[in-house]
Structure formats: C-alpha cells, structure tokens
Design brief:
It contains 21 helices and 25 strands. Strands 3-2-1-6-5-4 form a 6-stranded antiparallel sheet, sandwiched between helices. Strand 7 and strand 8 (285-292) form a beta hairpin. It is α+β, with helices and mostly antiparallel strands.
C-alpha cells in the first residue's frame, strides 16, 4: 500500500517528496474518523466565550435602556444601574459617576464604595494631572493599570493620592460623557488589584457613558416638556379666567358686587392664594367692598379700621406713593411689621398672612381702589399671576366706569324724566359697551371682531362719518378696522408713524388729541391738514389704546363738518380704547398659548423619534451580535466541508488510477468510471455551494458590524466621483473586455453632508456594481440589439436640508416580484457563486437605519433601474453601541 501524508493528501509516489496538498485557508482537515485537534477545540471554546461575553454585555445594555425608558426623568436609578452592570461585567470593585458643569464635579451616583472612603459630593480645583481633569481636557478615556506608578501619586497633597490610599484603588478606568463639544461628566470604575481592563470592557464602559449622556438629554427634554406643559396650563387657566370675568361684566351691568366677587374668586384660585379683598376709594378712605374666603376676624378688623389714602407706612403707603403693584414675599420679615405697624400685625395675627400682593385700580393716574390677594405661607407670586391681577384691575376700572355711567343714567332718569334724549343716549352707550364686552368674551382668540364692533359703535354713538382703529407696529401703523366712508380708500398697508398727524401725535404722547377744524390747523399737523383737505373731514379726535404704559394704537374718529366732540364722547371713546386694548392683549396671550402648544408638540415628537431610533439601534446591535456568533460557529465546520471536498476529489483521481490497474471486464470498468464521474460531479457541486456558503458567512460577519470609523462632513460629489472610479476600474480588472459609458450630472450645490464616508462608499459601490452587472447581462442577450450601448448615470441634487444621489443603469431592469424582496437579507437572483443576497440589505440598513435617510427604486424590466438615495445633511446618526453621533 502506498504511503500517505499525515494530513490526508495524495499517496506518495516513488521518488516524490512527501509534501502536504495545497488547501484553502482554514484548519487542516484530519481523517474523518479522528477527533478535532486541541487547537480547534480551543478556537471553538474561544468563540463561545466571546459569544457569551457579547450576550452578557447586550443583556446589560438592554437593562440600562429599560431603566432609561422607565425612569420618568429620575437619573439616579439610571446611573446606579449603569454602574452595577459595568462593575459586574468588568469585574471591578467599585465605581461612581460624576456630572461636570465646566468648573466642578458633582456626584451623580456611587456603587460598591469601600467603608474606608466616603466620596465627596463636590470636587473642584483638582490637580491638572488628575484623571478626571485629563478626561475633560482630552475627551478620551484614561486607563491606568497601577495608580501607584503614576507621577501624581507622589504628590501627597493631591486629592487623587488621598483617594487612592483611602479607597485602595489600584487599576482605574475613567471615561468622559461627551455631549456635543462639551464633557457632561465622567464614568469611572476601579479595581483594588493592579489588573488592566480589556479593550471590550473599555468599549462597554464607553457605551454606558454615551447612554448616560442620552439619559441626561432625555431628562432635560422631559423637564422642559413638563415646564412647557405647566406654562400652557397656566396660560389657558388665565385666559379662561379673563373670559369668565368679561362674561360676568357683560352680563351684570351696574352690579359691581357680583363682578368683584367673581374677580376675587377667580384671582384667588388661579393665583393659588388663600383669600382676597377688594377695596374702593371714597374720598380719602378705602372701604372694603368685596371679600373671598377671608377670615371673619380679619374682615371685621378691616371694616372697623379706616384705611386712608394718606397712609405713609406699610404696604398701602408704598402703593399710594408708587401707584404700582406692591409684592411682599414675607410679611413677618418686613421692617414695618417688625416695628409694630398695626395693619401689618393684624394681617399676620387675624389672617395668618405671609405672602401677599396689592394691585391698584388706576383711572386717569389716580388710585380708585385696589385688590389684595393673600397666602398663608411664604410663596412668592409669579410674574404671570401678577400680570393677570393687573388685567383684572383694568377690567374692574372698566366695570366701575360702566356702573358710574349707568348710575348717572338712572339718576338722570329719576330726576329729569323729561330728558329723554339723554336717557336714550346713555342707554345706547351702555348697550354698546355691553355688546363690545360680549364680542370680547366670545372671541378670545380673534381681535378683528372686537375692532370691527368698536369702530361701528364709536361711529354710531359719536355721529361720525368714519372711524379707524389704528394699530401701532414699531415706527409704522396699519389700519386694523374701518367703519364708514369719507372718500378715503381703505388700506391695510403700513403707514409711517408721524407726529404731524393726529393719530401719530396721540400714539406718541399716549393721550387723546382733539382738533376742532383740521383743515385750518397749524403747521404742527401739516400732514394731517393735507389729508383733511384731500378727503374732506374737518373735526377729528384720536384716543390711544393704552396697555402697561405703552400705546398699542389709537381710535381715530372724524366728522365731515366742524362739530367738536363733547367730553362724554371722549370718555366713551376712552372706555372703547381700553376694551380694544384688552382684546388685543387677550389675543396676544392666546397666540402665545398656541405657540407654546406647537413647541410642546414638536418636543414630544422629537423625543419619541429619539427613543424609537435608540430602541431600533439596540435591536440591530443585538441582531448583529447574534449573527456574528452564529457565523463564527458555522465557519469552522464549513471550512472542513470545503477542505474535505477538495481532498475527496483528489482521492477519486487516485482511486481511478488504482482501479485502472485492476483487470475487469468492460462493463464493470464502465460502471466504475460512471460512478467515479458521478461522485466527482457531486463533490464539485459541494465545493461550488460550499464556496457560496463561505461567502454568505463572510457577508454575515460584515453585516453584523455596528458602525464604521467615524462620521464627518464629506463632499457628496467627491464621494460619488470616487465611487464611480473605484467601481469602474475594479470591474475592468475583474471582467475581461468590460466596457460601459459613464454619465455624470453632479449638482455643484450638492455640498456636504455629515455621514460615515466608508459606509456610504460601500453603498454606492454596491449599487454601481449591480448596475454594471445588469447592463452587461443585457448586452449579452439577443434582444439587446447591435445598437445597444451599456450606460450608467450618476447624479446628485441639492434638496435643502438633504442631498439626493441617483444611480441609473439601462440594464435588464427588475421584475415586480423581485423588487418586493430585493432588500431582504440573502435574497438574490444571481447564479450561485456570483451573489450572496446581502449587498442591498446592508445598503438599506446603512442609509435608512444608520443615517436616517431613504432609498427608493424605480425600474422597468428590460429598460432601466434607478436607485434614489436621500441623505439628511445634519441628521442624528446612530453610531456604535446605539449612541447618538
């Protein structure tokens, strides 16, 4: 029997040197009946160990993500979970997470601290060589195998040295928590023996640090969401309260008691106060006119005590001097209380007052009353709450004025029955005021109906030919509403704000301007006089719309004849102006509410998108690790199949050579040859499909990667051009006689995009190579015709925040049934050995899942195939470990 090599190759012939047969890469095959070599067992054990480590790390990452998703803004359990998992997987003793604000480190969480060391809550002024400082400076991990070999350890005064000695830390790993261009904190774990951390452990801790940044950002967004929700709720409550008060005023003309009670009840509730009082001025004394939830003893004391307008001390005196809101945070800390002011002492003892606010009711620069809203705990009122009280005060002044007008009307009716005209006029005025209030309360989000109503009632009651409501906008004005016609065309365009006009003077001086005959006015109204001569109006009055010390516009009323307006008209127009100003302010508040609602909705959508992207990336990472483990397990058996198949073909040749020397009849010899040929054919198919399986395993390992290099800004046109050149020259080197026409249409405005360049190049090479394959196949088919010219076109286009890349070939196209499955892993229509079915699947994951873009296909069988890629320029890209890049 001929001798064989120990590796199972061909038998040795006489005079031939014993050498091992040439085999593919992989472990040497042994005889089938022998056990695997010890090295092969070690390799399998190593792969299984790596798979177990990957599964353990994935489980830890999943637990951290679960805590992040359920933490509801509480970061402490998230940090502790990260530390516990990091210590367990990295076999470390203890660790802590510190947050960094640019100056000092604040302790966020600590796990496993030795009893000999209690971590400080705040660290500042650290040595420049301290690992915490180095991490914030370099923004890279600091790994120290033995702390006692570090130069900083020799500095006995350094806090690092004291920490090492007390905690017994020998090996340490400090990883920065990078957010944008800043370091948000540090993630540190320690061992009490000198043993270095592995690259996988460093990568795990780096991943946890990135997830900690995501958790911090999620918490910030959640807190902002809560704050915006609170602001929205508060604004809606205030808007509702204002509408309710207006409804009471419009439905209760002349009944101040019900109006004031409604105001106090609403103000106390919205401002989260305990009770409130309302005082009106009579002469030089303020009288308690209404109260809500006020302690009876306090009411009795305020009814018994004269609150004089000449008061110099205390809150009342301060309000009268400043004619402004007085806000006291803590009554018991005020000097006038400590000095024994009787009003202050009574408020504290009888009403339990601590925080309160006085809001004056101002008419024509004079205090005619005031609101006082009280809390029995130290809790300052917000600016929005005080603004609401000021709004109520303005409404109260209007209600008081309405009541005064109504009382005058009633008095005149009782005393002078014969003055029917005055009665009719007063009723008409009151009806107009009530109608305007009704429009305000029914249109809280629309100012136009209110302005139209004011203009109409002002024209009718003042017997004017035309009334304009003018709205001020910086140094220009516009007509907000018009009623009547005096030959002047209506315009909505902006008009310069000029003191040479009556309306301009009224807005600038913030007081009424009345001109009896504008056509004969002096040079101070030069522009107004020209307009009067042009359009024919003579008498004019402008009453400003005042709000919070500024003029929002003016009511401009004109008569065609010289007929001066009376004081009652000016008073009525002033009331109309106040109501128009309130309507404008109400609409502004409503628009603020709508704006905040839109911002809130956008924040919710962004938060949900970030969370969905994070969950999707972690799923992909888990699938990638599982795929890598399976591929590693398959690769060795597959190598054995491929190697033994090749050896078996050689053995068949030897068997045929041996049998050829054995004498047998022709029939037997023919059967032997047929059987050998059949066996060789089967082995060739095994080799062919084994090679395809090996290619699939390699692509599975490539598919399982979680990221490539790092993302950066890249010129898209240059990337496409480079990919075209690489694919073209690669195809010419691989296929003899290959030729194709390349067409380029690269938009100069395509610009740059923030991408992973290697991965995008990989996608483009895959699509371009597929296009070469399709065009070449069509060239070889009979229906291609002699005039067919293989062509591939590449184009780019600027689409604003994104960039479009188009790869189009005039090849065989894609059938509909293939198009539906073309992005599925392992699906291919190419012959065995020419495709793995992973190229388009990987390309889809890179564009859609990694870069947040889109990839679409347009094709017509037998004509063309076009791939359109949309890449965001500054989209959130998910990098390794599911972190946001």
């Amino acid at each position: 029997m001929r001798g064989r090599s120990s590796t199972g190759g061909k038998p040795l012939k006489a005079g031939r040197k014993a050498t091992a047969p040439k085999r593919p890469n992989g472990p040497k095959p042994a005889r089938p009946h022998k056990s695997p070599a010890a090295g092969e067992k070690a390799e399998v054990a190593r792969l299984r160990r790596e798979l177990n480590e990957a599964q353990e790390q994935q489980a830890a990452t999943s637990e951290v993500l679960r805590v992040i998703s359920s933490s509801s803004g509480d970061l402490e359990p998230v940090f502790r979970t990260m530390l516990v998992n990091a210590l367990r997987i990295c076999r470390a003793k203890f660790g802590f997470l510190r947050l960094f604000d640019g100056k000092e480190f604040r302790l966020g969480a600590a796990v496993g601290m030795p009893r000999t060391y209690d971590p400080l809550l705040i660290l500042r002024d650290l040595d420049p060589e301290d690992p915490l400082v180095r991490v914030t400076r370099t923004r890279k991990p600091v790994h120290i195998r033995d702390t006692r070999t570090e130069r900083i350890y020799t500095k006995k005064e350094a806090s690092f040295t004291r920490f090492i000695d007390r905690a017994g830390a020998r090996s340490l790993l400090v990883v920065p928590m990078v957010r944008g261009d800043d370091v948000a904190g540090t993630f540190a774990i320690y061992r009490q023996e000198a043993r270095a951390f592995t690259d996988k452990q460093i990568a795990l801790v780096t991943n946890f640090a990135a997830q900690a940044v995501i958790a911090i950002e999620n918490t910030r967004l959640l807190n902002e969401l809560h704050q915006r929700t609170d602001d929205l709720t508060e604004s809606l409550d205030q808007q509702t309260a204002t509408s309710e008060v207006l409804r009471v005023i419009s439905s209760s003309p002349g009944e101040l008691g019900s109006v004031f009670e409604a105001m106090l009840e609403t103000a106390t509730r919205i401002c989260e106060a305990k009770f409130g009082n309302m005082y009106l001025r009579k002469g030089d004394v303020f009288h308690l006119d209404a109260a809500h939830n006020t302690p009876p003893a306090f009411i009795e004391e305020r009814t018994r005590t004269a609150l004089r307008t000449t008061e110099e001390n205390g809150t009342l005196g301060r309000m009268m001097r400043t004619i402004n809101v007085v806000h006291v945070t803590d009554l018991t800390s005020e000097e006038f209380y400590l000095s024994g002011n009787p009003l202050a002492v009574a408020a504290a003892e009888l009403g339990g007052v601590r925080t309160y606010v006085f809001v004056p009711l101002i008419k024509e620069a004079e205090v005619v009353g005031y609101f006082s809203i009280f809390r029995q705990e130290v809790k300052p009122f917000t600016a929005k709450q005080i603004e609401l009280l000021k709004n109520f005060a303005a409404q109260a002044v209007i209600a008081i004025e309405n009541t005064r007008l109504l009382n005058e009307l009633r008095q005149r009716t009782n005393e002078l029955g014969q003055r029917t005209d005055d009665l009719t006029e007063a009723l008409e005025q009151q009806t107009a005021i009530s109608e305007i209030l009704r429009v305000i309360s029914s249109s809280p989000s629309e100012v136009q109906p209110v302005l139209d109503s004011v203009a109409e009632h002002a024209a009718r009651i003042c017997a004017a030919q035309i009334v304009d409501i003018v709205i001020a906008e910086d140094d220009r004005v516009r007509i907000g509403a018009t009623f009547g016609d005096l030959g002047r065309p209506a315009t909505r365009e902006l008009i310069p704000l000029n003191r040479a006009t009556v309306m301009g003077r009224s807005i600038c001086d913030m007081q009424p301007v009345h001109v009896e005959d504008l056509q004969n006015a002096g040079d101070e109204f030069a522009v107004g006089r020209e307009l009067a001569l042009k359009f024919g109006h003579r008498t004019i009055i402008a009453v400003p719309l005042l709000r919070d010390g500024r003029a929002l516009g003016t009511i401009l009323v004109r008569r065609a004849e010289v007929n001066p307006f009376e004081d009652k008209h000016i008073t009525l127009l002033t009331t109309f102006a106040d109501q128009a100003a309130i309507a404008i302010e109400n609409v502004r508040l409503f628009e603020n509410v709508e704006s905040r609602t839109r911002e809130l909705a956008q924040s919710l959508e962004d938060l949900r998108a970030t969370q969905d992207r994070l969950v999707q990336t972690e799923k992909l990472a888990s699938l990638g690790q599982l795929t890598a483990g399976i591929a590693h397990e398959i690769k060795n058996p597959l190598n054995f199949v491929n190697n033994f198949s090749g050896v078996s073909v050689e053995l068949i040749d030897e068997l045929q050579e041996t049998l050829s020397r054995i004498k047998a009849d022709d029939k037997t010899q023919t059967e032997i040859i047929d059987l050998a040929d059949t066996l060789r054919g089967n082995l060739d198919k095994i080799v062919q499909h084994g090679s395809r399986a090996d290619s699939i395993v390699k692509n599975m390992l490539l598919h399982s990667r979680q990221g490539s290099a790092e993302h950066r800004l890249v010129d898209i046109n240059a990337l496409v051009e480079e990919s075209l050149n690489l694919a073209y020259h690669g195809a010419r080197a691989e296929m003899q006689g290959f030729n194709i026409t390349l067409e380029r249409s690269l938009d100069p405005a395509a610009g740059e995009a923030d991408v992973f360049p290697q991965d995008i190049t990989r996608v483009l090479l895959n699509l371009i190579s597929n296009g070469f394959y399709a065009a070449t196949n069509r060239k070889t088919q009979a229906d291609g015709g002699d005039g067919y010219e293989p062509t591939l076109a590449a184009a780019t286009r600027n689409v604003g925040d994104s960039v479009e890349i188009i790869i189009r070939d005039n090849g065989i196209g894609i059938p509909p049934e293939v198009k539906e499955q073309m992005f599925n892993p392992f699906f291919t229509t190419k012959p065995a050995g020419e495709g793995t079915g992973l190229g388009l699947s990987i390309s889809h994951d890179i564009i859609v899942k990694q870069h947040g873009g889109s990839i679409e296909v347009d094709t017509q069988p037998g004509a063309y195939t076009e791939f359109r890629i949309i890449l965001p320029r500054k989209a959130t890209i998910l990098g390794e470990g599911g972190t946001s890049a």
